[in-house]
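REVIEWER CHECKLIST
Item 1: Sequence provided? yes
Item 2: Single chain? yes
Item 3: Sequence as submitted:
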Amino acid sequence: MEFENLLTLIKTVSDSDLTDFAYEENGTSIHLKKKKETVVVTGNSSNVPVMGLQTVQPLGQITESEAKMEKDIADGEPEGMLIKSPLVGTFYAAPAEDADPFVSVGDQVKKGQTLAIVEAMKLMNEIESDFDGKVVEIYVENGQAVAEFLEKHPKVAYVNYPGLPSSKYYERARKYLPHGGCGVVSFGLKGGREAASAFMQNLKLGAIETHVADARTCCLNPATSTHRQMTDEQLKEAGVPAELIRISLGLEDKEDLIADISNALDAIRD
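Item 4: Structure as written out by the authors:
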């Protein structure tokens, strides 16, 4: 099923009086269940690319050493099979703040077992395992990689992302999101509105959009779009300063995203 059709299906069920809905096509199965005004999505959707990946090694292959597993992951070619979230969103390793994580690296899992929750479009989506195996690694990386790159760039004044040690929410994120958080990063550019405008005009991979949690990377500078009628002083008072950029990272390769952002930053005049 195409990503856009999946989103439409979820919204239709959410807006309807249905409490349970099952769908299967070409090996893709989706089960939507509404509880307490929340739609929970379970099942597999291997044709839809997403963030928040987990590598699961089959039970018959778990005799390999931890050193080899770590080397495979470091080389970017992890062995085993991937479990993919059907949507881009915020990754939750546990069902509640004070609860243990669904799974941890090294855990044995069974087919149908809940591995994590991904929140997208105000829906909590349970991610289930498609097979029995052992969790080798948990991947939630685009947001972290881009945030770390931005924080080191000389044209960036500040970065807001809970995965950074400089964030006031860092310790809380480490506790509740130990394997990474969402793909939304906000940052400010030195040079204010003019610098932000130049950055936005020179993005190639990222799309200029007002929404978040899309399959593609979406970027917004309120000062030059949604809040362009406001002065810099008014923007600052409203909490959205002119230099602020909000970027919702999609499914693209993190190196491609960083290269696109770097080129846009280089286009800003000193």
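Item 5: Key structural point noted by reviewer: The radius of gyration is 20 Å.
Item 6: Recommendation: ____
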